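Thread title: Can someone regenerate the structure for this chain?

I was given the following input by a collaborator and told the matching structure tokens would be attached. They weren't. Posting the sequence so someone can regenerate them.
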Amino acid sequence: MAPPKLSLLVVLLVLLLPAAGNAADAPPVGGGFNVTEMLGKFPEFTLFNYLMAKTRVAKDINNRTSITVLAPVNADVDWLLRRSARLPRAALLELLSVHVVLDYYDAAKLVALPRGRGAKPVLATTLYQTFGPANGDKSGFLTITPAPDGGAVFASAAPGAIVNATFKKAVIARPYNISILQISNFVVPPGVITRPRAPPPPKKMSSVAAVAPSPAPVPSPSALPCPPVTMPIEEPMEEVPAAAPAPSSQGYAVKAKMSWWSGAGVALGMACVLAHL
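Best answer:
Regenerated them for you:
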């Protein structure tokens, strides 16, 4: 069988994710099994097995006596990593622990789940419930709902679950110590991957607040300065060969005004002449 193709994101994860020692490879002290060695025989679970080995999840599984591991295949792990390119280590640990049920469920037990009208989903406790973040809410529990084909649907018990998963097949069963079930994809509770970011701190205002300039006030007509009164300068008018139109009343007024200024100019000139005599 050809080895699974790994995306560039998964390769970077392999290089950057620090190893949690070799605790997963240590001799089992709980149920007498090593989940890393068990999943290592199935190439389709290489990525899921690697992530559990690099976190403390594999060690916690080996220390249990009755456990069920819900394992997605490489393609589903790769899809999740592509969708969550900046998945922090703490969130990855929480997500993997949601897929470890603290009870034994194999294919026969899933078929025997209560069915029919009025049957309620089974509430199962996961390893995530033993962590601090899951205490006090339902994100550490899964609901197991029987499917018509004899399988089951796994979902987060917390309201607003993002992704559910269905049972595909039984991989390993050692009653009643450990069971490994293949599921269709990850079960993603709300708040594990999509975490709300804290609002940014308010920006400090400078000592001088930037205020948009207001439009300059329009002065009233009474406030406008009066232009200085100057004497009009009479320019010689060119002769027009055509006959001039009949003067109107407005023309008489202008002509009278110009005659008055002309007379005043003449009087002023005569005064200057007499003053120098």
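The helical segments are 8-16, 35-39, 46-53, 57-62, 74-83, 89-98, 107-111, 249-275.
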